[in-house]
């Protein structure tokens, strides 16, 4: 219960920050001012009023960049997570329910997919697709659908062996109808947890791609890009590195905890 | 009296060629209760599954025929067979935990058959479902209809399943060890309930169990199976009579008895098993 509220609270803050970024950000995230470079955050001596989390080596406001960065992080989380969930769980449901050849083909594809190291695969894909937000999203979906396919397939298999599925067949429900009406609602809690986890993973992968400068243009504020910049300044301005890392950590943790908490709430057996 | 179910020389094999049923023949008449007994793995449940068309993956009927209301099920197309079985056959499954979908309310799971098979509208089906629940002695039907399976007890769930099985007035009900997952005090109630409903609705009942005590009470005729092979078949009065088949006697001796504990729960003697194995091997040989 507590974790649901805590994680939900942090995610709500992020969502609000992302939506209202132009109104709440104190400064333009792209505005450079070399007179104001490497200002410390407000709790350290020498801070300038109005720059709550300090500035980076080009004098850009860290808080404003964080707020705009949340936009990109959330867009990637929802779209990439959603696309991976859609592809992965569709294939997983079909493989687990129909078995036989369907299962064998999907199983082999998953095996092949999983033998690629995911981060290198992502870098390769973005290099091929070209940088930009849409190719980052596409790359994450293409790589991470196996996460859904594997788990949903196993869960579907277990559910399909239940007597209520046999009963549905006996009373003459169609195969696809049985899958949709009897099996799907029972794998939904698992799917939701996975989706939540995947959103966290998508945020990390986006940060990694930004870190190696393969996400969107390096001017645009992304958390990964900020970490990359902060790395070079770690001895002079550690906050530039620490602030996005903390945000990243909290966000990924919140996504996974939110999923778990939600599962407890919606699963009728656990409720 | 007419024959509802007639199975003739039914053979079921796994994909690997292992025989699960070796030429089983039996028939069940309208309103009759036929017991199907044997140890676990004897193939009792396979018969019911073959009739309902829900054999596990990789297991198929390789020989024989199954006639329901005189129609050969194995000769029918998939859709026709599904429709006929759906209308005429219902199953009371073994485990009430897995037989109800945990994500759906009880009401919908009972009315499914009425809406799908009989084509009733939802409102009428719901009224009938409430009646059915009353018939299986559930005191508060309105509450149970709206409950999820985990909110009611195991005995109640089994009664819900019985109500669902009788809902569309099937000609044949296959009860697959309906009391095994229940504790002894509830078992008796559930058995009486099945017997009562069956008598009232005139349904034929194929009762699968390993419990000879239950068979003696419920089934006038029975089939004894060993390794998918029919060991003995006929009136219960003869099989439970003075000179039963050695295997039937061994099964009776294996049932718990509280009055004579030292004479109950005995394992099946090795010489009986050897004789059965010879019989099965002989039948296999004769069959090819």
UniProtKB/TrEMBL annotation, chain A:
The keyword Transport applies. Residues 70-259 form the ABC transmembrane type-1 domain. It is a multi-pass membrane protein. The chain crosses the membrane at residues 6-25, 72-99, 119-143, 191-216, 236-255. CDD domains: TM_PBP2. GO terms for cellular component: plasma membrane. Keywords: Cell membrane, Membrane, Peptide transport, Protein transport, Transmembrane, Transmembrane helix, Transport. It is found in: Cell membrane. InterPro entries: BP-dependent_transpt_permease (IPR050366), MetI-like (IPR000515), MetI-like_sf (IPR035906), OppC_N (IPR025966). GO terms for biological process: peptide transport; protein transport; transmembrane transport. It holds the Pfam family OppC_N. Belongs to the binding-protein-dependent transport system permease family. This is Glutathione transport system permease protein GsiD. The gene is gsiD_6.
TrEMBL record, chain B:
CDD domains: ABC_NikE_OppD_transporters (cd03257). Keywords: ATP-binding, Cell inner membrane, Cell membrane, Membrane, Nucleotide-binding, Translocase, Transport. Its main location: membrane. InterPro entries: AAA+_ATPase (IPR003593), ABC_Ni/Peptide_Import (IPR050388), ABC_transporter-like_ATP-bd (IPR003439), ABC_transporter-like_CS (IPR017871), P-loop_NTPase (IPR027417). It is found in: Cell inner membrane. Residues 5-252 form the ABC transporter domain. Gene3D superfamilies: P-loop containing nucleotide triphosphate hydrolases. The keyword Acetylation does not apply. The keyword Transferase does not apply. SMART domains: AAA (SM00382). One of its GO terms (molecular function) is ATP hydrolysis activity. It is a peripheral membrane protein. One of its GO terms (cellular component) is plasma membrane. Belongs to the ABC transporter superfamily. This is Putative D,D-dipeptide transport ATP-binding protein DdpD. The lineage of its organism: Bacteria, Pseudomonadati, Pseudomonadota, Alphaproteobacteria, Rhodobacterales.
